[in-house]
Amino acid sequence: MQYPEPIAKLIDSYLKLPGIGEKTATRLAFFTIDMEESDVVTFSKALVAAKKDLSYCSICGNITENDPCVICADKTRDQSQVIVVEQVKDVMALEKMQEYRGLYHVLHGVLSPIEGKGPEDINITSLLRRLQQNSQIKEVILATNATPEGEATAMYISKLIKPANIMTTRLAHGLAVGSDIEYADEMTLYNAVKNRQEI
Amino acid sequence: MQYPEPIAKLIDSYLKLPGIGEKTATRLAFFTIDMEESDVVTFSKALVAAKKDLSYCSICGNITENDPCVICADKTRDQSQVIVVEQVKDVMALEKMQEYRGLYHVLHGVLSPIEGKGPEDINITSLLRRLQQNSQIKEVILATNATPEGEATAMYISKLIKPANIMTTRLAHGLAVGSDIEYADEMTLYNAVKNRQEI
């Protein structure tokens, strides 16, 4: 005996999600059956809405309901700075800080020879075009992650931008707030010592 | 800046699933946006279908599209045996064996004083009623899990059934196929020695 068709189909759908295997998919499917019907309907509608109503901003690559996105459309923001990040989630993280009032550019990935990701696979061309077309941009802040791929991507982009005479900066590296020196890795400590500041 | 509403709603829906926290829900929501539209629509429909088209069999408690379920409706099956299991998934596991041709009864849980689950919270009343109304049933095979709660539930049910003069049996306990004696726990070894069989 197989599972009844409706549940088998639902298991198949859950299986398509990342990090969800056969057992978890089955558990989630059975859980769905015991959920409130209104919650299931909301979930069902949210799936289609997220797919249909959202797209990527044609200027910065951020996720948005309207093109251009609210950040690009907001003319009160500082048009001279652009922070380059790997993912949409990074935009949200930086916005939570409530200190930065400039613009963003989302790469949707990093250069990664291991995964076969080259410059044409991430949003670099659109960044360069944006810098060419928009003379207001004076500084590009490279905020890719502090990983080997993130560093390499930042270096690559900074070399491409240099001829255009736009300032490129990189986020500071050092100890995270609340972290223990005892447990910090060597590269973090090296950066923290190298970039020490007078108090 | 918050996430656009469609994605925030989808994150909320994913958060309602068991074992999925804020980070995973966000990852799944972003993954959904990058999925093929047809897959998202299929997923969305499967959710509602699983909720609307499935119910529990009024006889055995198994999950089904039609009531009674295919197993209860199949008169070629052995009507004299009923295997009592904790969950629907256990029915599927036993059916995969392709050896058993009797009926089932799904408890939908076990007695668990810690979780406040008493006899009225699981399908015991319907089992007793079924045994009273159906004189064809000669044997009840208690196939609750080999956990303290499963054992207690089996003991509890066997005591309730005893007066009705129906044979109650319990699945054999011993070494699992492919398992190492070295790594077997003491209770498993104790059961394996106690229930040893002549060859």
TrEMBL record, chains A, B:
Start-end of C4-type zinc fingers: 57-72
Pfam families given in the database record: RecR_C, RecR_HhH, RecR_ZnF, Toprim_4
Gene Ontology molecular function terms on file: DNA binding; zinc ion binding
Biological process per Gene Ontology, one example term: DNA recombination
Toprim domain mapped to chain residues: 80-176
Classification via InterPro entries: DNA_Rcmb_RecR (IPR000093), Rcmb_RecR (IPR023627), Rcmb_RecR_Znf (IPR015967), TOPRIM_dom (IPR006171), TOPRIM_RecR (IPR034137)
Protein keywords: DNA damage, DNA recombination, DNA repair, Metal-binding, Zinc, Zinc-finger
Sequence similarity: Belongs to the RecR family.
HAMAP family found in the cross-reference section: RecR
Function, in words: May play a role in DNA repair. It seems to be involved in an RecBC-independent recombinational process of DNA repair. It may act with RecF and RecO.
Protein's recorded name: Recombination protein RecR
The species this protein was found in: Ligilactobacillus animalis
Organism lineage: Bacteria, Bacillati, Bacillota, Bacilli, Lactobacillales
